[in-house]
Amino acid sequence: MKLLLHSCCGPCSVQCIEALVEDGSKPDIFWYNPNIHPYTEYCSRRDSLTKFAKDKGIFVIMEDEYGLRSFVKAVESEPAGGRCAYCYRTRLERTAAVAAEHQYDAFSASLLISPYQNHELLQKTGEEAAAKYGVSFFYQDFRPRFREGQKEAREAGYYMQKYCGCIYSEEERYLSSKKKA
Hints:
By secondary structure, the protein is α/β, with parallel strands linked by helices. The chain has one domain (2-180): HUPs (Rossmann fold, 3-Layer(aba) Sandwich), CATH 3.40.50. The protein is 56% helix and 11% strand. It contains 7 helices and 5 strands. The protein has helices at 10-22, 39-56, 68-75, 80-101, 119-133, 146-156, 167-180; strands at 2-6, 26-31, 60-62, 106-109, 136-137. Strands 3-2-1-4-5 form a 5-stranded parallel sheet, with helices on both faces. The radius of gyration is 15 Å and the shape is globular. The mean pLDDT is 92.
């Protein structure tokens, strides 16, 4: 199966790619993450993914769009669940559109490896995007491979992020660690 994997970063992609290859898929990677902030974080994740793809010989479609203003404007009044729904929809719809345009059999997302993401919402959003663009959404629960992927990414020297990606998740991470101190 020719599959386009939306990737949020190198570390989350490591075991997703391995699992897909083991299952007989030929995954390519799609970078489109206008939610990631600040700009230095965006660049660190993008560059880490680029290094991972080069190391593994994986083709990458890159939509290098830093979208601070449009993302914040779209989610500024949303509660956490609403902003995550917007974030998933924005990225998965764009992935589905690119997959359809380039005649992939299916698309998926490295977000499915994270134990911190809402899998039910990701699956529902992926299926809606698939129906909208006429391409299949491939759901696989990669979470059992999360720790191994993180370990491999550290060993390979890939940048390891400390929060989901948006400016609000960064704030929540640092505020919660401050409360624990």
